[in-house]
């Protein structure tokens, strides 16, 4: 019996179970199946990365992928490698080849083919490790693909908030039909200097936000009305910015032919969760004379994500 070999394998297995990082990659496309299939194949080239969730929205013309893998360290405990880096950069390469932002239109704001990449620690991994991954991916994306990259939260030198950067760049201003986003609708010379990549924008690729933060939840509440002005009023009153629920960010958006939607980011879901948001939306909608459906999460919980990762990794190695 080779004790050293078994010990090494056990240690590696423990690392893969407990030192995990998660990347959520939001891409401005949901209608082109061929493009999405190519992007997913690129991620699968790295067998130790697992796509644990995929959420597509036809009306927003947007897809979110949740990827998980382990992080390895050097002898001093500094992170030096995770399969996620290669997987996310490979997905970016294919996305920029397959998708043209100038041809894109949807009911959700975005500023790039890849709109956002956010890294979260899972298990015993730390936020510093997630920030390291975000900055590594940002350098690769900015330099390889010549796309301006804005770092945010723990990946930014001063912790600048994603919402602040988006407002500076005009993210929330629709440029088509009053409540939709089409093509590249901003100046080609950016008002704020990016952290990586060029200062001029390719209209076909746009820009990308890349950050690291503790876990957030995304929760959307449908409103049975086409009145987007009412949805925006409700969204503002629910949000911390509008004096509503602390640590909740919201958007009021068109969602289909006969509904609107309150799209929510819960920055501290263990403090203020979906139940509080649902009740607040229902109360405010009732004041507008509007009916509300039960909301839904667009991703799994961290516990479910780790569980699914372990099952898929075990199945691949058996």
From TrEMBL:
<feature type="domain" description="Formiminotransferase N-terminal subdomain">
    <location>
        <begin position="19"/>
        <end position="214"/>
    </location>
</feature>
<dbReference type="Pfam" id="PF07837">
    <property type="entry name" value="FTCD_N"/>
</dbReference>
<keyword id="KW-0808">Transferase</keyword>
<dbReference type="InterPro" id="IPR037070">
    <property type="entry name" value="Formiminotransferase_C_sf"/>
</dbReference>
<dbReference type="InterPro" id="IPR013802">
    <property type="entry name" value="Formiminotransferase_C"/>
</dbReference>
<dbReference type="InterPro" id="IPR012886">
    <property type="entry name" value="Formiminotransferase_N"/>
</dbReference>
<dbReference type="InterPro" id="IPR051623">
    <property type="entry name" value="FTCD"/>
</dbReference>
<feature type="domain" description="Formiminotransferase C-terminal subdomain">
    <location>
        <begin position="214"/>
        <end position="309"/>
    </location>
</feature>
<dbReference type="GO" id="GO:0030409">
    <property type="term" value="F:glutamate formimidoyltransferase activity"/>
</dbReference>
<dbReference type="GO" id="GO:0005542">
    <property type="term" value="F:folic acid binding"/>
</dbReference>
<protein>
    <recommendedName>
        <fullName>glutamate formimidoyltransferase</fullName>
        <ecNumber>2.1.2.5</ecNumber>
    </recommendedName>
</protein>
<dbReference type="InterPro" id="IPR022384">
    <property type="entry name" value="FormiminoTrfase_cat_dom_sf"/>
</dbReference>
<dbReference type="InterPro" id="IPR037064">
    <property type="entry name" value="Formiminotransferase_N_sf"/>
</dbReference>
